[in-house]
Structure formats: C-alpha cells, structure tokens
Design goal:
This protein has 265 residues and is of the alpha/beta class. The protein has a single domain, classed as Rossmann fold, CATH 3.40.50. Helices cover 31% and strands 20% of the residues. The protein has a nine-stranded mixed beta sheet, with helices on both faces. The model has no long low-confidence stretch (mean pLDDT 93). Keywords: Hydrolase. One of its GO terms (molecular function) is acyltransferase activity, transferring groups other than amino-acyl groups. InterPro entries: AB_hydrolase_fold, Esterase-like, Mycobacterial_A85_antigen.
Length: 265
C-alpha cells in the first residue's frame, strides 16, 4: 500500500455526517485531505461518488462553495438511493495537479486511483471492497474524471463531468502557471481521446457545460470528437457560466444519472 500515514477526524467534533481524512501518499510524497459526506451511515457496501474540484480549489470546495451535501440531502428526500460523497484534494501543487502523473515523479493519478480508494475503504465503515465507485468533477476536476474514468474503466460504474477542461491548453484560461508544470510523465497521458479509444468497454458517460462558459466551445468540440470516434455519451448544454451556482444546480443531474445506473444493477 502506498499510504504512509493516515489521520481521521473524530466524529464527536465534526459536523453531522462528515468525516475528514489526511492521507500521506508515497506516490506524491505529500499529504492530501479528503472530505467524506454520509460517512457515518449504518448501511453497508454503499456506492461511492468521487467529486473532484478545479484549479485553485481543495477538498472542501464541493461542500462549502457548491453545497454538494445540500443537493444530496434534497434528492434523498425525493427518493435518491444512498451514496457516500468523497471529495479529495487534487494534491496541492501550484494551481492544480490536473490529477496527472507528472514528469517530476509526483503521481496524482495514483493518488486518486489507489490511495484514495484504499483510505476511504479502510476508514469509512459503510464503504467496503464490494462498494461500487462513480467519478465526477468540475473544470480541471472534470478533465480528471474523464481521463481517469476512461483510463480505468473497470474502476467506475459511471462518469460525469461539469464544465470540463478538455485539454491542458484550456487551463490557460484560469491560471498563469507554466503549462510545462502539467506535463505528464508520458506526454500522451495528458490527452483524453486516446484513453477513450483504448478502453475496451466504458461505463455510462455524461458531460454538460453552461452556454455562457468560456469552456463551452471546447466541450462542444469534445462531444463531437467522441461522437466521431463512436464513443457513446450524452452532452447537455444549459444556461450558465463557469461558476459555483451552475455546479450546485447541475450536480443534481450527476447524482440522478448515477442513481439510474444503480437502479439498473
């Protein structure tokens, strides 16, 4: 196991249903924080939804800027099945890691794929080796969700991306950090389409973007590229920009999408 050390919050001191983790990974030689919502459920083998943040962000953003737990609880009252929401840090390098295996040897792909799953399974009683995992992200996290979902299709039962960065070049819209920082260990690692083409069988895939978002054009182009390659997916365009009010609203689409997959199990 690549986890060197693991710290877990005490439930008596944290907000209801929330557990906080700090994971020291040998893949990155860094400490990573994780927010886990619905962590104290008494159910067993619950499905897990990973929610990945964008540039500048951290593990707390999905809840405390996007109200992910508020969306989840509202949908639960409407009949949504139980899920555990797992919200990891991307790794804390520069403005963002891209969730990539970087040329400097720090592997943020393995942090999400290996360490995150191991840490959550070890510490959260309602998650087990039998739990099904889903992956979602916004902006840079959307890029990460698309890339990791396509690269490791057997790990996930569904993939969703909101307002996704579709290439490393898109990050220039949000950060002045040298693009070379995001150079993967192998250059093709940072491209999306080769992973979709390479995958033998992909889980259900959806993406959406606001029509006022600066990434709308690149998301349209990605959808066309996937269509041209015969990659089955759905793309939805809504009113809205690159902003938390949009992601708060449309997280509902992701959770309902994953719920429908669960109902088909």
């Amino acid at each position: 196991m690549a986890i060197l050390r693991l710290e877990q919050s005490d439930n008596q001191y944290t907000p209801e249903k929330l557990t906080l983790l700090t994971v020291h990974s040998s893949h990155t030689s860094r400490r990573h924080s994780v927010s886990v919502y619905n962590a104290q459920s008494t159910s067993k083998d619950l499905p897990v939804v990973i929610l990945m943040h964008g540039v500048y962000g951290d593990h707390w953003c999905w809840m405390h800027l996007g109200g992910a737990h508020v969306v989840y609880e509202r949908l639960r009252q409407q009949g949504l099945n139980e899920f555990v929401l797992v919200m990891p840090s991307d790794g804390g390098i520069g403005d963002g890691s891209g969730y990539l295996p970087l040329a400097n040897g720090e592997d943020y792909d393995a942090w999400v794929t290996d360490d995150l799953r191991a840490a959550v399974t070890k510490t959260i009683d309602c998650v087990s080796a039998k739990s099904r995992w889903y992956i979602c992200g916004l902006s840079m996290g959307g890029f990460g969700a698309l890339r990791l979902g396509a690269k490791y299709p057997d790990n996930y039962r569904g993939i969703s991306a909101h307002s996704s960065v579709t290439s490393i070049a898109d990050l220039k819209l949000f950060t002045d950090v040298d693009e070379k920082l995001f150079t993967a260990k192998v250059l093709a690692e940072s491209e999306l389409l080769p992973w979709f083409i390479k995958a033998q069988s992909l889980p259900p895939l959806r993406l959406d973007c606001g029509m006022q978002d600066e990434l709308y054009g690149s998301n349209l182009a990605l959808s066309k590229t996937l269509n041209d390659a015969g990659i089955k997916h759905s793309f939805e365009a809504f009113s809205g920009g690159h902003e938390w009010s949009y992601w708060h609203q449309h997280l509902e689409d992701t959770l309902n999408f994953f719920n429908q997959i669960e109902l088909g199990q």
